[in-house]
Amino acid sequence: MNLWQAILEAIESLSANKLRSGLTMLGIVIGVGAVIAMLAVGTGAQDTITGSISGLGSNLLFVFSGNFTEDIRIEKPLTLSDAEALADTFQAPSIAAVAPAIQGNGTVTFSGETANTQITGITPQYEEVRNYGLLEGEFINEEHLLGRASVVLLGPEVADKLFGRREGISGEIVRIEGQPFRVLGILEPKGGSSFGSQDDLVLVPFTTAQARLIRRSRERVDLILVQAVSAEMVPAASDEISQILRTRHRTELGADDFTIFTQQDFVATAQTITNVLTIFLGGIAAISLLVGGIGIMNIMLVSVTERTREIGLRKAIGARKRDILIQFLTESSLLSLFGGLIGIGLGWLIAFIVGRIAASSGTPFTPVVGLDAVLLATIFSTAVGLFFGLYPANRAANLEPVEALRYE
Amino acid sequence: MTDWVIEGSGLTKIYRMGNQEVHALRGANVRIQRGEVLSIMGPSGSGKSTLMNILGCLDHPTAGEYILDGEIVSHLTNDQLAGIRNRKVGFIFQSFNLLPRATALSNVELPMRYAGLVKGRTQLAREALESVGLGDRVTHRPTELSGGQQQRVAIARALVNNPAIIMADEPTGNLDSKSGKEIMELLLKLNRERGTTIIVVTHDALIAAQTQRIIRLYDGLVVEEPV
Questions:
Q1: Searching chain B, which residue's CA lies closest to the CA of residue A402?
Q2: Buried/exposed code over B59-83 (b: 16+ C-beta within 10 A; e: otherwise)
Q3: Chain B contacts to A (CB-CB under 8 A)
Q4: Residues A320, B79: C-beta atoms closer than 8 Å
């Protein structure tokens, strides 16, 4: 008996019991559907998060004050002079640009409209380091910095909230914490991010923020953004930053009182988290696939018992053990293969719906059904069918023809 | 020299039932000539079914030697026996044992499938059905056929691989007397036309009387074998 005949015969026998075959398949459909959907959501989340981290800028290093892993007794804050020292090209040849920043929250108002948003005090280098583009207007320059000018760049979301539009806003006067600021320009949207929206913020000159908006002890900065000359120089830049800051903070021995993150660190961390999440979700979904497999085994055992006489007859007219084994294995694998194929469709649909829901709630997020997930699900579900079909099929193949023929 | 199609000597079958040994056959000797039509009779418990199972290669004898169509088959493995059954034995059962979902044609094709025959199966199956007078019923399923017609399909299935012997186990037991008579006539006709050896296992003395010879079993032994 060749395989094609075995498949035809199996389809015939499965379709003789349509409801039963359908319900058995349903277990696999749900299992495979869940696995596909979960993997798709996981991959989608990973793409979104790594995408938004790359959107922060290129070859970036983030220097924070404080040590995130060890306790330290005296913690010196990062200062403007630290930032200036890092910008020294002789001491730090791998560093292309340095942008210190201070951050706080505040209220921005315009003719009765209010927006609570993040206020960042920046230097002109920030534009280059963070890859900012402008929808209109100009970026903050050295003169604004020196003159502590009351100018502000609005993020697109803030512009939406206050003006309901994104152009023709430059030159308007908005109030930040009650003080008047002239709108210098509107930032290009960067899209959502795992750190909250990158578009819901306003940028003001560093000195202005320090003097009027964000109370900080003199010189102190919250964060120094450093851009390395190239991707390969990021580790070298990191070493140079450590060297300079240790000398300046007099902590050559012992723990650092600052922490450096590279963009790759963020990407790697985010990937680890989403991978764990994907495996976790996929694992739970795989359990339902297992349950579906047990359903197949159950039904195949019933089927073997029901068809004992048929098996006896087939053996009487010359079926070998192998023929019977193939017959029942074909049935169980077909059940799970069809279930798997339908499940892939279902998983795709679920992933699509999740993407739609995410989009409508303001987080652009596209679940990705990868070819590898589809292949994995197909192979895995067929394997489940084979594995759980093996015991019933073996039982059928080992029946004694005499006993089987006598079975009532 | 006589052409024996079946030579069984000292055929013994012992079943274990718990701690007890049941001697179903106690060294029966059976010899059947090619082209014979004979019946096996005996009261229930006489070992009739056991003998039929062994002669039909469905079961191994515990002891004794069995030669079917020139091949020693008493010591073959299960799969080898399956091959022997496929090529040399055709079975006809009391309850027909047709596959309910398959057409008459597919039912008759089944032994050829297990024989590994790929080409010309449909043609051979059709011819077999025509020879039992069912040429116009090839696409019918068993449920759409009468008992007599179902048994004819079973006969077509039994003879389609040109076996050396046909084993019929109470072939008329589930049929009314008219269909039963027709089935016996058909079997005798096949024997006349094709020379196939036919062994009928039966309780019915009227059926047995139509055969050339009767083997009687009593307590696991052949008690009468006039050749």
A1: B58
A2: bbbbebebbbbeeebbebeeeebbb
A3: 53, 56, 58-59, 78-79, 82-83, 85-87, 91, 93, 97, 99, 101-102, 110-111, 113-116, 118, 157, 161
A4: yes
- Does residue B15 belong to any structural domain of this protein? no
**Does residue B110 lie in a domain region?**
yes
Establish if B17 belongs to a structural domain. no
* CB-CB under 8 Å, A319 with B114: yes
* A11 reaches B (C-beta below 8 A): no
Residue A266 has pLDDT above 90, yes or no: no
Helical axes B78-88 vs B104-114, angle rounded to 10°: 130
The Cα–Cα gap between B92 and B172 comes to: 10
Contact criterion met (CB below 8 Å) for A277 and A42: yes
Total count of domains within chain B: 1
Q: Show me where the domains of chain A are located.
A: 3-53+268-406, 76-256
Domain assignment of residue B47, given as a range: 36-60+79-215
Tell me: the pLDDT tens digits for B45-74? 888 889 999 999 999 999 999 999 999 998
- Please report, as a single letter, which amino acid is at residue B161: N
Give the mutation candidate from A314, A317, A400, A407 for the B interface (greatest B CB count, under 10 A).
Answer: A317
Helices B104-114 and B147-159, interaxial angle, to 10°? 20
Report the CATH number at residue B108.
Answer: 3.40.50.300
Residue A404 sits at the vertex; the CA angle it makes with A401 and A407, to the nearest 5 degrees, is 155
Q: Which helix (H) or strand (E) holds A163?
A: helix A156-163
Whether A322 has its CB under 8 Å from any CB of chain B: the answer is yes
ipTM: 0.93
Q: Judge: A314–B85 Cβ closer than 8 Å, yes or no.
A: no
User: What pLDDT does residue A194 have?
Assistant: 46
Q: For B98-140, what is each residue's pLDDT tens digit?
A: 998 889 999 999 999 899 888 889 999 999 999 999 999 999 9
Shortest distance, CA B208 to any CA of chain A (angstroms)? 23
The top-scoring range by mean pLDDT among A75-89, A189-203, B54-68 is B54-68
Minimum Cα–Cα distance from A405: chain B residue: B97
Q: CB under 8 Å to A16, separation ≥6 — which residues?
A: B101
CB within 8 Å: B82 and A315: yes
